[in-house]
Amino acid sequence: MSVVQLAPARDGWDDRTVAQMLTLASSRSAEDRQRLLLKVTGLCEAGAPPPTVAPLLADIFLTLTAQAERDIRLALAERIAGADWAPAALVNMLALDEIEIARPVITASPLLKDADLIRLLIEATLEHQIAVARRPRLSDAVCDAIIDRGEAVTMTALASNRTAQISDAAMRRLVDQSRRVAGLRAPLTRHPRLNQDLAQELYQWVGQALRQSIGERFRIDDARLNAAVQQSAAVAVGTPEWRAAPTSRLAENRERAEMERRLVDKLQAAGQLRPGLLVRALREQRFELFEQALAALGGFSDAQVRQAVRAPTAEALYLACIAVGVDKAVFASLLVEVRKLTGGLPGDGGWTATPMNAHSAARAFRQMMQNPAIV
Length: 375
Description:
Structural class: mainly alpha
Order of helices and strands: HHHHHHHHHHHHHHHHHHHHHH
């Protein structure tokens, strides 16, 4: 089918029009359903629907959009991208559709709130995450969530977003990240939020062309720069490599753990922290995120989760996962991923797949943690 052209409707919201809509809604014909979807969209564009019709429209939109062909969904997404009358559930559905359909909605919809955008960062594809990072006038909370995730291409898209509300602290984190992510350096040198101090820091590890760009905007303190370079050289020469490496790794691990903690806190505050994040964290080899998300979901302490992971059997970890809503059928594959990242922990001992609800599993887990001899 060719791309659908949506013509604006001229009809008003009278009884006859609503009756026609109901007749089309009861039809089993795919063509009638598509006609209804386009008719409703055109009516909404002509004028906001009355309150008495709005609940009916929400049901019609959601039902028909889920059944519509790709070109219909694409045309609908482009049509309602900037609308404030569309049902919020429909906008969120389209935002999770394939990226060509989702992009106009992610970019422009005023109905997508911070919690919705953070959910996309967690649940959607990398292309969706990049679209979020490019959204105009992105809030500081979503900017922080993007940096917390530490995904290079998404942070680079954010650094290229001149209208994003990036705080001074977030800007410093991006500059710090540019040590390892070369793609961040060019957009950061041109970013309007780059200040004198951060420019001085960024100047140390960019190439000659970018140094010239920074020098055109800021006055670089050569004495301060040389002192920093000399200090780094003295540390490199005076400290054997085999001693410096562990310190560097420890600092990197602490930074990563803190980054994951901030992400978990933001998701929990937005009501978006869900058990599915545990599986995704393991697949992305982000074990600190797995541990902290498990602790937050279950209300467990970090020490309890670490103890369960390092136990001689998987019993305690099984109880903790069931307590936060992980399906018992999923646990076996989850355990395989955990052991890949921990060198085989928890130990070879199995677990008892006793049927129990989340509350009972949480209580059993806490009782087990109170008796270290069991684990």
